[in-house]
């Protein structure tokens, strides 16, 4: 009976890993392009033309009419925040407590004129109001972002594989296989003594 259970656990673990890997290479939720925001959420805002800015730890993704139009690289690889005002992008960097003013294409206009704390206090977080419209962003369990305007869906990004359920299925499968292997070796060692 124990051998049947062990065999079942091995098959289950193997299937979890295979499903996760198949989804990585062939599935829709796989990390298929740079158009998929991934990493720690750093900010969100909307400009006057209704372009949506989603900041993650390495880049700010700009969507125009639901399609990625450009990517802006922040001036730091560490914590930052941003907001948009008067069609200018204000970014603050936590590492040097400084901030800068950029055009909406990400070109620097001035740096060091403002402090990170000033930018952080004005950054929108997960809510942005433009021209009377209320935009909200939400990130689901699979890493996909959903943006609504006045309660109606305006943007749905794809999931990032490393933040998706498929990645966690692979991890669980590998951990399960490791645990079964470990206990099988422990039992064999005890029987041989």
| Total count of domains | 2
Return Rg in Å: 23 Å
Count, helices: 3
- Find the count of extended strands (DSSP E, 2+ residues): 12
Share of helix, binned: 25-40%
Can you put this structure into words, describing what you see?
Helix 1 runs antiparallel to helix 3. The strands form three sheets. A four-stranded antiparallel β-sheet has the order 1-2-3-4, with no helix packed on it. The chain is built from three helices and twelve strands. The chain folds into two domains: 58 residues; 118 residues, no CATH class. With 193 residues, it is of the alpha+beta class. The longest helix has 28 residues.
Provide a short characterization of the protein structure.
By secondary structure, the chain is an alpha+beta fold. The chain has helices at 2-26, 116-122, 165-192, and strands spanning 41-46, 52-56, 60-64, 67-72, 80-85, 88-93, 98-102, 108-115, 127-130, 133-139, 145-149, 152-156.
């Amino acid at each position: 009976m124990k051998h049947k259970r062990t065999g079942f656990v091995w098959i289950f673990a193997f299937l979890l890993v295979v499903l996760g890997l198949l989804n990585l290479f062939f599935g829709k939720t796989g990390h298929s392009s740079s158009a998929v925001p991934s990493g720690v959420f750093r900010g969100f805002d909307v400009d006057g033309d209704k372009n949506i800015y989603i900041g993650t730890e390495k880049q700010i993704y700009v969507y125009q009419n639901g399609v990625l139009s450009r990517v802006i690289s922040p001036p730091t690889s560490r914590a930052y925040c941003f907001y948009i005002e008067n069609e200018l992008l204000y970014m603050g960097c936590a590492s040097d407590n400084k901030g800068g003013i950029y055009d909406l294409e990400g070109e620097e206009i001035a740096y060091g004129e403002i402090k990170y704390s000033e930018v952080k206090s004005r950054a929108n977080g997960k809510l942005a109001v433009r021209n009377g419209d209320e935009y909200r962003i939400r990130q689901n369990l699979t890493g996909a972002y959903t943006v609504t305007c006045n309660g109606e869906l305006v943007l749905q990004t794809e999931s990032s594989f490393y933040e998706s359920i498929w990645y966690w299925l692979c991890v669980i499968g590998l951990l399960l296989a490791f645990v079964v292997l470990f206990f099988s070796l422990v039992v064999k060692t005890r029987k041989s003594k």
